[in-house]
Amino acid sequence: MNDKVNTTSEQNGNSSCVGTCTNLHNDALLSLGPKNRYSEIPSIRLFLAKYNTYPSTLDCDNDDEDTPFHATTILNYIRDELKHDITKDCVSRRYNRTAKQKYVHSRLSDLGNGIMISFNGSHLDSEILNKNQLKADYDGKYFLVVSDLKIYHLPEHDSFAQDLADRFSQMTVCSSKSCMLQMVCRNQCGYYLDGIRVKKPLITDLALHYGNNFLTTHDKILNDLNKKESKGIVLLHGVPGSGKTHYIRYLIQEVQDKTLIYVSPDMAKEISSPEFLPFLMRHENAILIIEDAENIIQDRSSSSLPSQAVANLLNLSDGLLGDAMHQQIIATFNCDLTAVDPALL
């Protein structure tokens, strides 16, 4: 790609272009541009004012919201390769109280050749999977990322703009994926769900974390969880700190199109409550995640007052209720296997 497109003699664009407005008064010309929202740089109006032409727009859309553009890499490219002076850009700054850093939220770069680049909605992100070992832009491992990136250009520079967009598409970072976990809560009106967001942990090699033999088990678990109208129970056993919860954080990011219902340890006993099953019946085709489930999976024969919890789990995972509700269960526990009700094993 050439450093510059030689259009300096075409300050007002091509007069045959449908968007050229050489005879319009400035006020009338600027009225053609859309009204800008609060704190947003009026990119199209500035383009109109400089080039007297309504610009063609190339929206550098990124289909994956978890791979935003790295604003700093793009700025370095247009500065070093296109010889653009970024100190002349129009910028809007914000202050991030968490990072305690001032950063450029919006930027308009005029390459001086009938091409402007708009960065809108930039923000600081510390949850970056830095596979390419990029240097963080700010202390605290914060990266400046942007998803709304547009190229405004004169129509005759369509090919150049496309080449530029292709270059930018390679200048992305991977943000940690997250999913919404619905936590079971209770108030005076009964049970309800409250969403919490869970980030995907960086696990690049499952075998390294959990052993080669676990890979086949993982594939089977994931395949079963992603089946439609499925049921069953997955029991994850291990000593405290062995990585059960870490694995669940990873696993649930791979599950598609299902409600994930989290039952915290202090709510696990509610499984035996008569009101709990009717509540679950409102959430068909969901996955129930129960941490520290020792109290609800204990062998019924070992207690003089056996809990209804095991029966409820069995009915949900392999009974008539399971046939109707299509719910799956993931439960973790630390106790010895001999303490678990045989019907669950």
TrEMBL record:
GO terms for molecular function: ATP binding; ATP hydrolysis activity. Residues 234-344 form the ATPase AAA-type core domain. This is ATPase AAA-type core domain-containing protein. Signal peptide: none annotated.
